[in-house]
Write a structure and sequence with these properties.
Strand 9 (173-181) and strand 10 form a beta hairpin. This protein is of the alpha/beta class. It is 34% helix and 24% strand. The N and C termini lie far apart (60 Å). The chain has a single domain (7-259), classed as Spore Coat Polysaccharide Biosynthesis Protein SpsA, Chain A (Alpha-Beta Complex). The chain has helices at residues 22-25, 38-48, 63-68, 73-81, 85-92, 112-117, 120-123, 143-154, 213-219, 232-241, 261-273, 279-290; strands spanning 7-11, 32-33, 36-37, 53-58, 101-105, 128-131, 135-138, 157-163, 173-181, 184-192, 203-211, 246-250, 254-257. A five-stranded mixed beta barrel has the order 8-11-9-10-12. The chain contains twelve helices and 13 strands. The radius of gyration is 20 Å and the shape is globular. The mean pLDDT is 92. The longest helix is centred in the last third of the chain and has 13 residues, at 261-273. Bound molecules: uridine 5'-triphosphate.
């Protein structure tokens, strides 16, 4: 029986340059899909998977994130006075228990692998999850929950995997496949951002991981990879070299790359259309835009 995964790292120290100028003042993770910030979707997914400790790797300018998870006593008492109980419930879903959430600073954006390494002392010697909040995954069962359930049987390291068209593979970490077993894929290698035409498969790694503490020890070496950054993919690939298992998990659900403008807009449309209170008005509007009458 493999150990339960109860800790998750949320690396949120990136600069979010693809969303400038917005991200000059607002952390990318606070940008909203319909009415909830990206980070709330990530936290809800983690909770559904049984995560109890939430570790944020932050940087300068991200204090809005800390405030978001704090209580808001004045707002709460004003809503209480007005009898707005539904809004109070919405607000309370953002509160975190004292001690359940921790913030670590990454002083320089040296790459995702470095961001994860910054949290090593809070992880200690147990398996942990990594969630990138800009990958938002819609599905019946949370992606991390699907992974955790399978991890409990197979152990080792596990990464969320998704098929991508060959021309997009060079934007991702890509798995070299040893064996496919339904949704589970045993890897024999992993390459970060392969050159066009050199991807070992069409299975790309997206922002959900379950990792062993060995990966943190491997990140101690601080080896730079693609783009001069310390890459998490490289550290996981070194696990394979040490003959420790790494699996890809082809999750059920649809992933939106909310770190890119096009992906963020797609997610906004999909989540908006999925909301019963907005669906009719919004779909009418979209139909009118498609018909070439956006202002009607
Ligand atoms: P991205 O590659 O999307 O980088 O990072 P970014 O800085 O957030 O965005 P762009 O590309 O400039 O628009 C993937 C994830 O890794 C985190 C980011 O916060 C994001 O969640 N990250 C990346 C760090 O925490 N530290 C780093 O040094 C790099």
């Amino acid at each position: 029986m493999n150990r339960k995964v109860t800790k998750a790292i949320f690396p949120v120290a990136g600069q979010g340059t693809r969303f400038l100028p917005a991200t000059k003042a607002v952390p990318k993770e606070i940008m909203t899909l319909v009415d909830r910030p990206l980070i709330q979707y990530a936290i809800d997914e983690a909770r559904a998977a049984g995560i109890k400790e939430f570790i944020f790797v932050t940087s300068r300018g991200k204090s809005a994130l800390e405030d978001y998870f704090d209580t808001a006593p004045e707002l709460e008492s004003s809503l209480k006075k007005k009898g707005k109980t539904e809004l109070l419930d919405v607000l309370r879903s953002t509160n975190m228990d004292s001690g359940a959430i921790a913030y670590i600073r990454q002083h320089q954006a040296m790459g995702l692998g470095h961001a994860v390494w910054c949290a090593r002392r809070l992880i200690g010697d147990e398996p942990f999850a990594v969630i990138l909040p800009d990958d938002v995954i819609a599905g019946e069962k949370s992606c991390l929950q699907q992974m955790v359930e399978t991890y409990e049987e197979v152990g080792g390291c596990m990464v969320a995997a998704m098929e991508v068209p060959p021309e997009q593979a060079s934007s991702y970490g890509v798995l070299d496949i040893k064996e496919s077993m339904g949704p589970l894929v045993a890897a024999k290698g992993m390459v970060e951002k392969p050159a066009p035409g050199e991807a070992p498969s069409n299975l790309a790694v997206i922002g959900r991981y379950i990792l062993t503490p060995d990966v943190l020890r491997s990140l101690d070496k601080k080896q730079q990879g693609a783009g001069g950054e310390i890459q998490l993919t490289d550290a996981i690939a070194r696990e394979l070299k040490s003959l420790r298992p790494v699996h890809g998990y082809k999750f059920e659900g649809r992933r939106y790359d909310c770190g890119s403008k096009a992906g963020f807009l797609q997610a906004t449309v999909a989540f908006g259309l999925n909301r019963p209170d907005l669906r009719d008005e919004f779909s009418e509007f979209i139909a009118s835009v498609q018909a070439g009458h956006p202002a009607e």
